[in-house]
Amino acid sequence: MFDKILIANRGEIACRIIKTAQKMGIKTVAVYSDADRDAVHVAMADEAVHIGPAPAAQSYLLIDKIIDACKQTGAQAVHPGYGFLSEREAFPKALAEAGIVFIGPNPGAIAAMGDKIESKKAAAEAKVSTVPGFLGVIESPEHAVKIADEIGYPVMIKASAGGGGKGMRIAESADEVAEGFARAKSEASSSFGDDRVFVEKFITDPRHIEIQVIGDKHGNVIYLGERECSIQRRNQKVIEEAPSPLLDEETRRKMGEQAVALAKAVNYDSAGTVEFVAGQDKSFYFLEMNTRLQVEHPVTEMVTGLDLVELMIRVAAGEKLPLTQDQVKLNGWAVESRVYAEDPTRNFLPSIGRLTVYQPPEEGPLGDAIVRNDTGVEEGGEIAIHYDPMIAKLVTWAPTRLEAIEAQATALDAFAIDGIRHNIPFLATLMAHPRWREGQLSTGFIKEEFPEGFAAPEPEGQVARRLAAVAAAIDHKLNIRKRGISGQMRDPSLLSFQRERVVVLSGQRFNVTVDTQDDDLLVTFDDGTVAAVRSDWRPGAPVWSGSVGNEPVAIQVRPLLNGVFLQHAGAAAEARVFTRREAELADLMPVKENAGSGKQLLCPMPGLVKQIMVSEGQEVKNGEPLAIVEAMKMENVLRAERDGTVSKIAAKEGDSLAVDAVILEFA
């Protein structure tokens, strides 16, 4: 076994690998760029080596820098994590020449499977069912359109060396193929250093199901069940689960056996994932193979009880797999949510900045469930523009799927993040969505269910009453605190608390009466319903945890002028609590309207201007592309929202812009 390994990665996955290495008694070496000098993974490792400037192309993607770090520290092996160099055939070859072990598959397997075009050819030879498509390299937009016309729409344009949703576009027409080809090729070049793309048929109403495989250097390969990753946005996974609510035992076995056959055909000898696109009728087709550890591997670990990172390290050291296919058992259900630094109300555009608040839910048992949080950040850390926007992976396990979903919803409500925009409100909304809870999934789920984008829903029903009760309890606690302030002109004992209150939740009104009973606060609504509220919440805490009635509840709390902002179960509302007289006076106050600015194109996120596509004086039509802004490795096309004439261009290509910076103005 190795004495010391180097992790050629950063963030969450670097921390994840370090934890397993520590458990195995193996010393670790972290590498870091200028942007990651104070990162969590650097502090966790036994040693750390600086490898260059913030851009990945000048640090994490430089093989020579990684090998030099190994020689400098005496690391015997390298774990690549995912992304960066994890699927570069040249990396394990260079490591081998330097006498360093690669904790991953052999270069031949990476060459055969890591390239999306070659992997489809290998899958066809191994008699794995494949999606119809053109497996050659496409040289021009015209060539791409010709192929798409022959295959039939819709089609998927995909980077051969791609992954993580980068360099991928769905096209419904010839025009979309031409534009998608250019964007996929550009993203592929900047993200992977390889601009080859191919085209294949896009299966309508598909589901994304993948099989986890693991092999050793003695010819043994097994599969560890499946994961369903159908909840995607821009071809990037958002929620994953294991097992899949679609599959039965027979389909699971068929998919698993095909995945193993493919892995054996290329002498696969590490952890890898064979991805399939599945129809609602349980038909399935090979999509691609990822020759690395997947982001969503924790859900497989939770239902199998296996540590995939440990297995990777052991097989890389030459050990045989410790179990056979018959010994693989699936237990319970696991759900993973990817917590991203992005603004769901602005079409999920990336968000950067400092984490002024970062308080994840407590890991460990939650009733019959288990909570796990894989992360690589901490409070006070900074989310930079240079890397993937993932903050954490929140995972819950429970005996059944619905229990795992309920545990996930509770954990999301208890996850406090501030200082940047994030997608927790969206994730919490998904957990309450009936279609998700019923398992009626497809990769078009988000587009179909949120066609106008996402806005946190107004609370209604029991959620609204729960928030109203908690708002009244928070107000009561704050009033008690105010009475305890010393030096007041009137003795606090002479003041009486008015029991009758009006709770206003974003326009909804609840007349309540507040009483105390032992450790509970009793909130009585107009219809006579009584909610017993109990919590040890203290003013200033970002999460209110306690119970309403007999239900455990976690609610996000942010202070507002004369109120609080509450978020729970995906719903969000400004809450203000008045006496009855105060409520009457508040109704008389005028509402300030925000002035709009429809004559400017504003940068929707911090990013780099890649291209200005219009000129001053040019007339543009609604929907016409105006500019391309790149942020966190994704290119975003900004389009005109109505017809007009460009009067002034305020930014130029190569500019780094802040959010809401003016790009151009209209006459």
TrEMBL record:
<dbReference type="Pfam" id="PF18140">
    <property type="entry name" value="PCC_BT"/>
</dbReference>
<dbReference type="InterPro" id="IPR001882">
    <property type="entry name" value="Biotin_BS"/>
</dbReference>
<feature type="domain" description="ATP-grasp">
    <location>
        <begin position="120"/>
        <end position="317"/>
    </location>
</feature>
<keyword id="KW-0460">Magnesium</keyword>
<protein>
    <recommendedName>
        <fullName>propionyl-CoA carboxylase</fullName>
        <ecNumber>6.4.1.3</ecNumber>
    </recommendedName>
</protein>
<dbReference type="InterPro" id="IPR016185">
    <property type="entry name" value="PreATP-grasp_dom_sf"/>
</dbReference>
<dbReference type="InterPro" id="IPR011054">
    <property type="entry name" value="Rudment_hybrid_motif"/>
</dbReference>
<dbReference type="InterPro" id="IPR011053">
    <property type="entry name" value="Single_hybrid_motif"/>
</dbReference>
<dbReference type="GO" id="GO:0046872">
    <property type="term" value="F:metal ion binding"/>
</dbReference>
<dbReference type="InterPro" id="IPR050856">
    <property type="entry name" value="Biotin_carboxylase_complex"/>
</dbReference>
<keyword id="KW-0464">Manganese</keyword>
<dbReference type="InterPro" id="IPR041265">
    <property type="entry name" value="PCC_BT"/>
</dbReference>
<keyword id="KW-0092">Biotin</keyword>
<dbReference type="GO" id="GO:0004658">
    <property type="term" value="F:propionyl-CoA carboxylase activity"/>
</dbReference>
<dbReference type="InterPro" id="IPR005482">
    <property type="entry name" value="Biotin_COase_C"/>
</dbReference>
<dbReference type="InterPro" id="IPR000089">
    <property type="entry name" value="Biotin_lipoyl"/>
</dbReference>
<dbReference type="InterPro" id="IPR011761">
    <property type="entry name" value="ATP-grasp"/>
</dbReference>
<dbReference type="Pfam" id="PF02786">
    <property type="entry name" value="CPSase_L_D2"/>
</dbReference>
<dbReference type="Pfam" id="PF00289">
    <property type="entry name" value="Biotin_carb_N"/>
</dbReference>
<keyword id="KW-0479">Metal-binding</keyword>
<comment type="pathway">
    <text>Metabolic intermediate metabolism; propanoyl-CoA degradation; succinyl-CoA from propanoyl-CoA: step 1/3.</text>
</comment>
<dbReference type="InterPro" id="IPR011764">
    <property type="entry name" value="Biotin_carboxylation_dom"/>
</dbReference>
<keyword id="KW-0436">Ligase</keyword>
<dbReference type="InterPro" id="IPR005481">
    <property type="entry name" value="BC-like_N"/>
</dbReference>
<dbReference type="InterPro" id="IPR005479">
    <property type="entry name" value="CPAse_ATP-bd"/>
</dbReference>
<dbReference type="GO" id="GO:0016042">
    <property type="term" value="P:lipid catabolic process"/>
</dbReference>
<keyword id="KW-0067">ATP-binding</keyword>
<dbReference type="Pfam" id="PF00364">
    <property type="entry name" value="Biotin_lipoyl"/>
</dbReference>
<keyword id="KW-0443">Lipid metabolism</keyword>
<dbReference type="Pfam" id="PF02785">
    <property type="entry name" value="Biotin_carb_C"/>
</dbReference>
<dbReference type="GO" id="GO:0005524">
    <property type="term" value="F:ATP binding"/>
</dbReference>
<feature type="domain" description="Biotin carboxylation">
    <location>
        <begin position="1"/>
        <end position="451"/>
    </location>
</feature>
<keyword id="KW-0442">Lipid degradation</keyword>
<feature type="domain" description="Lipoyl-binding">
    <location>
        <begin position="592"/>
        <end position="667"/>
    </location>
</feature>
<keyword id="KW-0547">Nucleotide-binding</keyword>
